[in-house]
Here is the input.
Amino acid sequence: MTDCRGMASVPMAFEQKVSMAQQQQSMAHVPDRETLRKGKVSPTILKPYIDPTLCSSDPNAFESEVTVGRMFDARVHLGHKVGTLNDNMKWALYGERLGICVFDLEITRHYLLKALEFVRSVAFLGGRFLFVSTNKSSMLMVETMADKLGQYAHTRHWQPGTFTNTKSVFGGPIRLPDTVILLNTLTSAMEAHPALVDSAKMCIPTVAIVDSNSEPNYVCYPIPGNDDSVESVNFFMEMFAKAIQKGRAESDTFLEGAKEKKQQQKRTMGQRRH
Here is the structure.
């Protein structure tokens, strides 16, 4: 009969050996297990290990673009009737006027800046975006803007399983988007857009405009604001486009610098050999 205590000691001893080997071979820029464990509670601990370009991003990159005045002119502050208010959207409201919910544009600005910084980071890393909209008045504009950016748009009926059952829908595996940007989160039947559900199942981060009648808890980066007005949607699309373009430009600059640095190292090595 085998001793259970002996069986338990074998994997424990093996784990200790592996841990010691990892500690000996680990480099200074690689976080150890303890750092990763603490990082779950305090993400700032992992900052030294994140790409320096992302760490040194300018927090004021979009400050001049996203102003309360511009958002007011774009009718971002206008919500739906008070009777349709979702309780989970009360935090984003300034009040109501003539029975219409009015968003606090300072809150909208704060969340929009966070979302734009995330979009910029994804674009810097070469991520792909899918713009989703069911608003007929802005469908063409969304598709045109996505095409100019070299990204993708879905403005028609969302077929169930678009993300979760690609073999049946597309006939084979495809590359899923790295981020889904929804210009509205409700269908014509006032139900949560199925793209939100599919994205959650596939762990795809979402950025979305959430109106006063929307459910923000489904979205990774909710942006409280008007999702019906053409002016409002156009403003948000313009901001998303600038964030993507900025991320791409930073990525190109970073890659060019890395390429030049590599070539310089090769020249230096060649000179040393001679």
In short: The first strand starts at residue 78 and ends at 81.
